[in-house]
Design brief:
With 363 residues, the chain is α/β, with parallel strands linked by helices. It folds into two domains: 223 residues, Type I PLP-dependent aspartate aminotransferase-like (Major domain) (Aspartate Aminotransferase, domain 2); 124 residues, Aspartate Aminotransferase, domain 1, CATH 3.90.1150. 37% of the residues lie in helices and 15% in strands. The chain has eleven helices and 15 strands. Strands 1-9-8-5-4-2-3 form a seven-stranded mixed beta sheet, sandwiched between helices. Strand 4, helix 5 and strand 5 form a beta-alpha-beta unit.
Amino acid sequence: MKINIASPQIGQEEKDAVMEVMNSGMLAQGPKVAKFEENFASFIGTKHAIATSNGTTALEVALRAHGIGEGDEVITTPFTFIASANAVLYTGARPVFVDIDETFMMDPEKIEAAITSKTKAILPVHLYGSACNMTKIMEIAKKHNLAVIEDACQAHGAKWEGQNVGSFGTGAFSLYPTKNMTVGEGGMITTNDQEAYEKSLLLRAHGSKVRYYHDILGYNYRMTDLEGAIGIEQLKKLPKFNEARQKNAAYLNENLGQIKGIIVPEAPEGVTHVYHQYTIRITSEFGLTRDEVLAKLTESSIGTAVFYPLPLNRQKIYTDLGYTPNTPIADELTSQVLSLPVHPGLKQEDLEYIVETFKEMAK
């Protein structure tokens, strides 16, 4: 591709940090992971952070740390990567899907109708680097005595009304290469809940506080010091990475937003959007279908992708479990969404080329 949809920003600082760990001989979880956890908690604004092997294990451990298990229900969104819901299944609980609104986020006005005697948690997903309305979600959770597990895997540095996502309830972040910051593969849990913190430490390391003494059934979900070292350096750069994404998104919004049939992703009121994905909607007024636009962009060497083409309650794994499609807005938006390059590695000429390509299609 001439312009890739994602481009991990790895510099000399990360390379030097990895070599330091390599030379130390301490390759598994050690002091670099501990330092990364300390720095990440400080950045998000929580008392604790727990590093894990990836974002999916971060979600699973966060759920288990709050006692979610067999027979429980967790309210979440069908418009997300499948790990958001699968992590619930891993615990033995059942995801309950609530439709989204025009912001791509789970509609808080529809949550209470989904609550039953089995509901134990709400799992909002801060999709694309945006943020859910955490004021309403936390009010509902408090009213019904529910845990809140924030899927912030795509939202490092995103804020709701000035507060970092991942600090309202217990947060889960992914550090995959396409994310706003990366360690290669890795995850992070953030929390102010002391009990959830202590249980997370056990769960990620075979249920062990003291080596070879095991208190509960746990897992090997640890992060390596190689990844921790990369994370320390990436976290230092994250604010600049996010600023670049926001600047690129502002340019695309200003220019693509003038084209009939294109709905651009303006940040909703109260949201600090960090644009993990720059996701537009292509409506019938544009004159080409979403898939036709995708094909033309690909022909023009512009990287693009559909996140996500099928709501989770239409995926075979969930229809086999008895789920039925009942989220019409998610259904509609999956046929319209298209993600474009927005990463910090873009040059001004790349942005101009993307805009000109759309203008040519719109003629």
